TrEMBL record:
<comment type="similarity">
    <text>Belongs to the glycosyl hydrolase 1 family.</text>
</comment>
<dbReference type="Pfam" id="PF00232">
    <property type="entry name" value="Glyco_hydro_1"/>
</dbReference>
<dbReference type="InterPro" id="IPR017853">
    <property type="entry name" value="GH"/>
</dbReference>
<feature type="compositionally biased region" description="Basic and acidic residues">
    <location>
        <begin position="43"/>
        <end position="54"/>
    </location>
</feature>
<keyword id="KW-0378">Hydrolase</keyword>
<protein>
    <submittedName>
        <fullName>Family 1 glycosylhydrolase</fullName>
    </submittedName>
</protein>
<keyword id="KW-0326">Glycosidase</keyword>
<dbReference type="InterPro" id="IPR001360">
    <property type="entry name" value="Glyco_hydro_1"/>
</dbReference>
<feature type="region of interest" description="Disordered">
    <location>
        <begin position="34"/>
        <end position="54"/>
    </location>
</feature>
<feature type="active site" description="Nucleophile">
    <location>
        <position position="375"/>
    </location>
</feature>
<dbReference type="InterPro" id="IPR018120">
    <property type="entry name" value="Glyco_hydro_1_AS"/>
</dbReference>
């Protein structure tokens, strides 16, 4: 048990120590009502912005606008607080910590030019974790890439990017051969989309799925490279898993739910089973999508399957073909139908602990592969009392119920669950909205939505609660 973060939401250190510009560095802040935007400059020198999931104008390149606030530039400043933060994780009793390595810090342009100073930073982080007997769990790509690859190669739409990515992976695999055992190739691969995550300038289905094919091949190659360097490496994949129920027994709703769940299962099918499933090939035929493959690609996918399935679980959803606009809510960047049987978070996400047990059982039944819950948590408004205390009992209740369901999935259903790293174990910037008000952590960071604050760390009530949970290996929840 431990916690999870991502470089683009937590690390900061913008352009420090030789780091290059990355996609997250040109994405603005926002909130529940104000979408995040990507800022750019066109070939004729015009400066503009688009919502993060919209395509950029032809020829536009990433651009940082002076006086615009970009949350990733400082985030919650792990770059300067890593010793303090890791000591706090150790105090809680973490035995694992999931974090991502910023591609642009190691390879500033994403090419084969290395930045030794960036590698030295991660040397220190990993050594500090090991000093406290905290297992490093490294995500190789978490919603980010160097902007140079987006500007000059159109991101993952270019097959050349596969070679750049695997070079980056090989450097890390070799450097941390005896220090890091657990790796994940890509974060939430099923919701990678558009320029802000794939670096592609067009959102049409052909470009999107060609880019995702390149991601699949890159992941498979990374698995093979890693296994040659150290056969004991455990290299996994990761999806955003949003369990979906049919609204009722109406056949159309059951079919709709099946289709929704396939949109997650497709990515697991490819990376765990090693091939494109027939239902997706038929969908490509209907939509006129033709994946351009090299002759070796199918074999690469077959032999480059992963060791375990990592997934995030925050909420469940409902399929209802007759849903009205008033029945729709936004959850985890997706439009879903309200479930009348569930409570919702401050951000409208359904709170469904039982759904976690269902999700664990469904995934394990389908793949019979070890599972790793690498994200789970409650984004909420936290109120700081005059004495600095934060009584986040709502967060404790959320985790208590979810951990119980994990226990039942293991003991009653026979699920092979190898780890649990709740999301945002320390407060960080929301990926979806770019705000600080949406807090997940057991540790509070003094920072607001506009970047004001002294970055001081303090323990919430949930800090001591989670400490006792870890000490008891999940048996003491009260």
């Amino acid at each position: 048990m431990g916690g999870a973060t991502a470089a683009n939401q937590y690390e900061g250190g913008y352009l420090s120590g030789g780091k290059g510009l990355s996609l997250a560095d040109v994405i603005t802040s926002g909130d529940q009502k104000t979408p995040r935007k990507v800022t750019f400059k066109t070939p004729d020198g015009k400066i503009g912005s688009r919502e993060r999931n919209e395509p950029l104008p032809e020829g536009a390149k990433a651009y940082v606008i002076p006086d615009q606030y970009y949350p990733s530039h400082v985030a919650t400043d792990f770059y300067h607080h890593w010793e303090e933060d890791i000591a706090l994780f150790a105090e809680m009793g973490f035995n694992s910590f999931r974090f991502s390595i910023n591609w642009a810090r190691v390879c500033p342009k994403g090419t084969k030019e290395l930045n030794e100073e960036g590698l030295i930073f991660y040397d220190k982080v990993i050594d500090e974790l090991l000093k406290y007997n905290i297992e490093p769990v490294v995500t190789l790509n978490h919603f980010d890439m160097p902007t140079y690859l987006a500007d000059e190669y159109d991101g993952w739409s270019s097959r050349e990017v596969i070679d750049f990515y695997t070079f980056f992976c090989k450097i890390l695999f070799k450097r941390y051969k005896g220090k890091v055992k657990y790796w994940m190739t890509f974060n939430e691969i099923n919701i990678l989309r558009s320029w802000s995550q794939l670096g592609i300038h067009s959102n049409d289905p052909q470009t999107l799925f060609q880019a995702k094919h390149h991601v699949f091949v890159a992941s498979a190659k990374a698995v093979q490279i890693g296994k040659k360097i150290n056969p004991d490496f455990q290299i996994g994949m990761m999806v955003c898993y949003i369990l979906n129920y049919p609204r009722d027994c109406k056949p159309a709703n059951i079919l709709e739910s099946l289709q929704f769940n396939r949109e997650m299962e497709f990515y697991m099918d490819v990376q765990v089973k090693g091939y494109y499933p027939s239902y997706k090939l038929k969908a490509f035929d209907r939509e006129g999508i033709v994946i351009k493959k090299e002759p070796e690609d199918d074999e690469l996918l077959k032999i480059g399957t992963v060791d375990y399935i990592g997934f995030s679980y925050y909420m469940s959803s409902v399929s209802d073909v007759d849903a009205k606009e008033s029945d729709i809510v936004i959850g985890n960047q997706m439009k879903v139908t309200k479930n009348p049987y569930l409570e919702i978070s401050d951000w409208g996400w359904a709170i469904d602990p039982t759904g976690l047990r269902v999700a664990l059982s469904k995934i394990y039944d389908r793949y019979q592969a070890p599972l790793f819950i690498v994200e789970n948590g409650l984004g909420a408004y936290d109120k700081v009392k005059e004495d600095g205390a934060i009584y986040d009992d709502y967060r404790i209740q959320y985790f208590k119920k979810h951990i119980k369901e994990m226990h039942d999935a293991i003991i009653l259903d026979g699920v092979d669950l190898i780890g649990y790293t709740p999301w945002g174990c320390i407060d960080l910037v929301s990926a979806g909205t770019g705000e600080m008000d949406k807090r997940y952590g057991f540790i509070h960071v003094d920072l607001d939505n506009d970047g004001n604050g002294d970055m001081s760390r303090s323990r919430k009530k949930s800090f001591d609660w989670y400490k006792q949970v870890i000490e008891s290996n999940g048996t003491k929840l009260d």
